[in-house]
Structures are given as structure tokens and as C-alpha cells.
Model the fold of this input.
Amino acid sequence: MEATTAHVTSLKLRCPSCGFELGNMPGLPTVPVACGQCGFSIAGRSDYWDACTDKSYPRDFAKQWLLWEAGKLGDPTLVYGHDPEHYFREFLTHTSLRPEQLASMKILEAGFGHGRLLQQIQKWSPSAYGIDLSKPLPSAHLRPGSAIFGNLLSIPFMPGQFDLVVCRGVVHHTPDPEASFGCVAEQVAIDGRLYFAGCYEPGKGMLFLRKFLPRSWNYPEPVLLALATLFSGVRALLEAARTQKFTLSALKRFYAHYKLDVFDVMAPRWSGTLSEDTVVPWFSSRGFEVCKVGHGSYVGVRKDSPRVLELELASRSGFRK
Done:
């Protein structure tokens, strides 16, 4: 089933600079949406919206997707060694949703990155949008006008409109992960879901590289690529030995997984890892019933609008640029 291009329902925009309500979101980014209060303009580009208020914000985490699309981090048809449908199936399993249910849902992916999950969701949902602090990759083929170039600390949507918000592997790259989580959580409607996944937990995966190679995000790109090639080659051979799979296709998948994984661990700045003891209170304090559904993956259903969330919104009084 392919989703139609019609919008299920309108979404109300707000200015990412001052928070002033801007009315309904246009269908396509053909004309800018200007704020009558502060003068900031959400610019319409050829296929996405430019709502970025701070072009100087560091984008260490985004360079990997340009390198991956160029084929420098393994097979660009695979994401961490998997086909795009793998992550869509995982998403459906974790959220307990069927593809047919997505058709009537308003969906936001905060930090869509390579865009492959959002691409799969858009096959079913005509009201699936994404925001990321890098421009959408051409290879993602996202629906025109559905991608927003902007910061999740200043999401240009009025709060509480989305039936489902997806945020995978994002907030630990921000200076204040809890504040970032709050900005994402406020987008969820009452009885809506927040799928918060891709969180690195302490002591897991390739995280030892962060200690073995201190401040690795400052290394020159050629050095990072060389280290990723070296470590991923060794790790792929070890995985082949463990699984007794020495075919060329298996080795290519192992290599594609670990090269992207190693680069992803070394290249971006991180604020730290997120344990269950940290994440669950974030959900609970914002009126969510939450369940851990996998390694570093959680699903919360928003049941009310607690006073703490109201105070948080009031204290921000707009957005961080």
C-alpha cells in the first residue's frame, strides 16, 4: 500500500525563533511562512522547509550520512548492515502498530538522519513529517514538503498535535539530553505514543572506543575513515568466525554494519550514555506510561498533561536558538 499525497489533517506551525503561532502548515514549500511577531521566516526550498534558527550549531553527527550516501561507510543500500525494511519492522514490533494504522496518524520523526525509516513510514502515512539539523539526503526520496531543516530544541509545530513521535539515536548528541527529550515529548498528543530508541546504554557495543580514542570527534575526517576501516574489518572477521558465516555477502553485511557503527561512535560529540534509570523518569514526569521494549528502546503513551510540563513550557518562554 502506498500513501496518497493528501494530508490527513492540518498541522499548526509556530515560529521556531519566538514561539508565536503561525497558522496551518502549507502543503508544499513554495512560499515562506513569515512570523508577524519577530520577523523570522520559515523558508520554502525545493523539497523541504528551512526552519533553522542557528546555522552555526555544530553538525558533527550529520557528516556520517553524507559519507554513507557517497559509499564511504560501507554499502549505501544498507544501514548498519540491514536493509531499510529491517528498521521499519523493528519500529512496528516495538510500537505494537500495524502498517494500516499509520494511514490515519499524524507522525513526526525528530532527527530523521538517513531518512530510511521516515521513507518507509511515508509509504503508509500521508501525514508523516521529519525534522533534522541537516538537510534531507536526496537518496531518501522523502515526500516533498515533509522534511524540515531545523533544531529539535525549536520544533516549528505547536505542541500536542502528533499521534506518534519517533526519536532514535538523537538526544545524546545534544548538550542537554533531558531538555531535548522534553522538546520532543511535548509534541505528542494525549493518548499518543513516543517511540524513543537508539539510546546507547553504558558498557554496550563499541563504546570503549570513546575512552580508547579521547575527543575522537576532533580527528581529521581521513583519520576517522581509516580507523573505521581498520576496526570494522577486524570486527567483521570476528563476527564471521562467531557465526560461521564466511560468504562474501555475509562479510559485506558485517563490514557495512561495523564501519558505520564505528564511525558513528567516534565522529559525533556526545553528552553521555542513557540508562533505563535515567530515561524512565523523563517519561513519567511528563505524564507518560512507559515500557522498555528493547536495548536502548522505549515506548511511552501520554496520558495527561502534568503540571511539570506546563511549568517547563512556561519557563522556556519561547525557544533556544
In short: Residues 4-8, 316-321 have pLDDT under 50 and may be disordered. The chain is about 30% helix and 20% strand. The domain at 13-57+80-196+271-316 is CATH 3.40.50.150 (Rossmann fold).
